[in-house]
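Input set for joint prediction.
Command: fold jointly, output tokens.
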Amino acid sequence: MKERTKRDIIFVGISVLLYAVIEALILYRVIPPYFERGIVTVCINVILAASLNLINGITGQFSIGHAGFMAVGGYVSAILTVKLGMSFSVAIIAGAAAAGVLGVLIGLPTLRLNGDYLAIATLGLGEIIRIVILNISYVGGAAGLNGVPKDTNFTWVFGMMIFTLLFIRNLVESSHGRACIAIRENEIAAEAMGINTTRYKVLAFTIGATFAGVAGALFVHYTYVASPSSFTFMKSIDILTMVVLGGLGSMTGSVVGAVVLTLLTFFLADYPQIRGVIYSLLLIVLMLYRPQGLFGNKEFSLKMLSRLTGGGRRDVA
Amino acid sequence: MDGTALLQQLINGISVGSIYALIALGYTMVYGIIRLINFAHGDIYMLGAYVGFYCTTVFHMSFIPALLVAMVISGLAGMVIERVAYKPLRNGPRMAVLITAIGVSLFLEYAGILVVSPQTRTFPEVFPTTLYTLGGVIISSQQILILLVSLVLMVLLTYIVQRTKIGKAMRAVAFDTDAARLMGINVDMVISSTFGIGSALAGAAGVLVGVYYNSIEPLMGIMPGLKAFVAAVLGGIGIIPGAVLGGFIMGIVEALVSGFISSTYRDAAAFTILIIILLFKPAGLLGKNVREKV
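tokens >
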């Protein structure tokens, strides 16, 4: 228990240091505004990938409708700041709460389904959310909700990213998280061991949805507009690719996956088709040759690094 | 809503429904045999539409030869995809195959955009449009053609599955793969031909849709693909008559929603059907419930 607290403190310390360095570079214009945009997108995508990883990787439920929750968080927060004139922090919390509530409402019935059926149901729900938003004229319909204040900055996204990672990491190491992993490994066995599987699946789904809502709120307040076209099925697939690349079940993997793919998107922004072909080939080749992703379900750590360089003690197989 | 308008929407629904049914057949056959949602199936349908387009514009073929060429090429594409992307993962984790299928689907879409450009193309008019009026209801010659071709293909499929040797083998593999292998059935060959036949049907659906709507584009397969999957689930996935039933129901519900509520809610209707069926009868209309065993 104590060791974990120590590790969290070290993690926060390193994060603060990293934050100070990047923020200073942004303030003194060493990083041009164009790249600042890329960094902010990376942080938002890390939140999305980590939250989807909790559902898909840790709990083993296959959700491909994450963009729907992002949309709800984005729209609710935008309504609060644009229409009701509330502050950004209230808007984030409200967006997250709305996405979380929706997560419970959707999760309770659909998580009874397994595997392929759950995938297709979440896909359908993600699309329904988008189509419903498209038809609400209060939020601008297909044109989207314009004039969203640009409240999101590097400080916000970085802070929320660190909070997300800490929260999910600690959740995974708690008894709740262990229950989720047990469900992933074998749902029937987990149930036989007395784990209330529905409860934990809904819990993971809700927390994942909540953080997707946070990411949505941050995203919308960075791009000036909440538009249905930002939250399509393709967005869900983008997030899924990040999680799969990093490794289902590995938090550090999700971070790496999000960073790599966001930068790839960023540098291929002028060639969206080529980006699409690379994304799809990456998914196929990864599944054929390394289905567990870069990190499998392990976490990257210094111990792992020393083993790779041959310095550590080798395990006897 | 008056009777004529209702009848008109029913007729429109049946024509679109027969397209969904053709695509759904491929989904259901593949799922029945290897339990995989072949996400790339909708893009095979797009491929079929483009092959049909090039056959009629560049090679000046008439409708029937173009349809046959499109079916053959789509069928081969389906078999290649199975061989390259799905076969190596046949004993792998389910999620890996599903993700691969999503990857193949995206690949076909973006490669399609790269190769044939993203713009919408006008499908040539291979049949002169004639409108028949029957008691206030308008039926176009294209609608009759679509229904006719779909029915012929469905009858042909039923014949293959029920009466031929390969059909018998397919049913055996779907029932119990290991037992079928022990009986000397070449399972790989059967799976491959299942993909071939299913993809050929999707290719035919692509050509028919080109003839019906006159326009095709590289991303045209996403929505019909998803809806056809919903149709397959609705009828009971793995059950061939179920796919046809689901396809027609789907087409009719969509036509009614866009005719009497709003066409913007048309796509939502399909997914609402999906959620309802999954919650209340996940085995589908014609399916039986099977309990999960340890």
